[in-house]
From TrEMBL:
Protein name: Glycoside hydrolase family 28 protein
Signal sequence residues: 1-19
The Rhamnogalacturonase A/B/Epimerase-like pectate lyase domain, residue ranges: 53-106
Alphabetized InterPro entries for the sequence: GH28_Enzymes (IPR051801), Glyco_hydro_28 (IPR000743), PbH1 (IPR006626), Pectin_lyas_fold (IPR012334), Pectin_lyase_fold/virulence (IPR011050), RHGA/B-epi-like_pectate_lyase (IPR024535)
Family, similarity comment: Belongs to the glycosyl hydrolase 28 family.
GO molecular function: hydrolase activity
The species this protein was found in: Chryseobacterium tagetis
Upper lineage: Bacteria, Pseudomonadati, Bacteroidota, Flavobacteriia, Flavobacteriales
Keyword vocabulary terms for this entry: Glycosidase, Hydrolase, Signal
PANTHER family: PECTIN LYASE-RELATED, PLASMIN AND FIBRONECTIN-BINDING PROTEIN A
Record-linked Pfam families: Glyco_hydro_28, Pect-lyase_RHGA_epim
């Protein structure tokens, strides 16, 4: 009886896994899923009470450090039930800002929050750095396990990073590094990888001064109901907008202009229910890069990037338009990009899925719809399972649907795939795609269940993708 019971349980488990994966058969399916998801993602409401930071001693002269004034205003607002902490006209220099529940940091038009270039103004907190958990400098705006928080207004968040501050820590000469300057992240980065592989407890992976791991700009960590709207974000030390393990994230009408090293625009990590819309990216790295953790940390935590909408955004400059990976060990599912435009001499790929066998995980249900692309360098659609070092965790990429894609003056390939023979990219559909200016129609290796309908490259029908 035990043997038969075990077989029955295994059969039920297998059936359950099979039932979970259903490739789309028409665009109407993901379009309906998008509409249902939009109803779940709502911005938080705040008590109608304003707390002006100048009432707490803040001076907007661009020179006086206002860290304590921000702290006092946010704590009082939180303690009294929430509301808006208002930054009036002026330039307000500060260290790290910690957002508390029910607080909307409102950056008024003609106001700037200018962040300090002194690393001592950023306390050590529990954070993620390139998808790995550790103790490191606070992000410039940080929150941990808070609810109903926001950064809004038509003002500016200036990270104040440049070739002499923060950026040169990446170790690249083009960003100001030279051997006569103290500061290079490479040894600490290698040490963090080592700690992760050893599964050293995250709170014992302590960095900060002397390690040169740059902070990200905005990082709510394990938060619920996070909203950003209308602000300009510029000059980040590293990644710009980086919610981690958050649920219900709404980003709208935000402008990111930041051309430093690793200056990705929007990097949601292991988040659920995310909607970014009507936003603008002019960045030094990927415009949008969806993540779920690197290697052991990503797999052990096991939280996928789930239910993301990227809608009506402009990717003015950046290496990738919509990217999934590479820190994607927790997997990703239900990623919908619709109505976006991108065109840049630095754009390498419009849609890129990058992972490796040191990551593993399943990336599935990616919908890339109504996309207009000007120029790019490498590929309109790029699958890469061999990004960075190999390992023992073969990734899965499946159910990728591209429809209504136009490319005016593309690059080397229309479609470029680099997968494992044991794990081919499965259920790839491309419908109504018109791509011009392509050097070579495609370069692919392992694809399974490919559907091409009304696809043309340089005016000629593309009817198959063969190795």
């Amino acid at each position: 009886m035990k043997k038969y019971a075990l077989v029955f349980i295994i059969s039920l488990f297998s059936a359950s896994i099979s039932a979970q994966y259903r490739p789309w058969t028409s665009a109407q399916q993901p379009l309906k899923e998008i509409e249902a998801l939009k109803k779940q993602i709502v911005k938080p409401n705040f008590r109608k009470k304003d707390y002006l930071i100048t009432d707490f001693g803040a001076i907007g002269d661009g020179k006086t450090k206002n860290t304590e004034a921000f702290k006092k205003a946010i704590e009082k607002c939180n303690a009294e039930g929430g509301g808006r902490v208002v930054v009036p006209k002026g330039i307000f220099l500060t260290g790290a800002i910690y957002l508390k529940s029910n607080v909307n940091l409102y950056v008024s038009k003609e106001s700037t929050i200018l962040f300090s270039q002194d690393s001592n103004d950023y306390p050590i907190v529990f954070t993620r750095w390139e998808g790995m958990e550790c103790m490191n400098y606070s992000s410039l705006i940080y929150a941990y396990e808070e609810e109903n928080i926001a950064v809004t207004g038509e003002g500016t968040l200036d990270g104040n990073a440049d070739l002499d501050n923060w950026w040169f820590w990446c170790g690249a000469t083009k960003y100001g590094y030279n051997e006569s300057r103290p500061g290079r992240q490479n040894p600490a980065r290698a040490k963090l990888h080592e700690y992760m592989a050893q599964r050293k407890p995250a709170r014992e992976r302590i960095f900060g001064d002397g390690y040169y791991l740059r902070p990200n700009f905005v990082q709510p960590y394990r938060c619920k109901n996070f909203w950003m709207a209308d602000v300009l974000v510029k000059n980040s030390p590293m990644w710009n907008l980086n919610p981690v393990l958050c649920e219900n994230v709404l980003i709208e009408r935000v402008k990111v202009i930041s051309h430093g090293p690793n200056n990705d625009g929007f990097d949601p990590e292991a988040c659920k229910n995310v909607w970014i819309k009507d936003s603008y990216f002019d960045t030094g790295d990927d415009c949008i890069a969806i993540k779920s953790g690197r290697d052991e940390d990503g797999r052990d935590i096991g939280r996928p990037a789930e239910n993301h909408i990227i809608e009506n955004c402009e990717m003015k400059d950046g290496h990738g338009g919509v990217v999934i990976g590479s820190e994607i060990a927790g997997g990703a599912k239900n990623i919908y990009a619709t109505g976006n435009i991108m065109d840049s001499k630095n754009l390498e790929r419009a849609l890129r899925i990058k992972t490796s066998s040191s990551r593993g995980g399943i990336i599935e249900n990616v919908f890339f719809y109504n996309t207009k692309v000007g120029a790019y360098k490498e590929a309109a659609v790029r699958f890469n399972m061999h990004y960075e070092k190999p390992g023992n965790y073969i990734p899965t990429i499946r159910n990728i649907w591209v429809e209504n894609l136009t490319v005016e003056k593309g690059g080397k390939y229309a479609v470029f795939s680099d997968a494992y023979e044991s794990s081919p990219v499965t259920d790839f559909t491309m419908v109504n795609a018109k791509m011009n200016g392509i050097e070579i129609p495609y370069k692919v290796d392992y694809l399974k269940n490919v559907t091409l309908k009304n696809v043309s490259v340089n005016g000629k029908p593309l009817t198959e993708l063969k190795p």
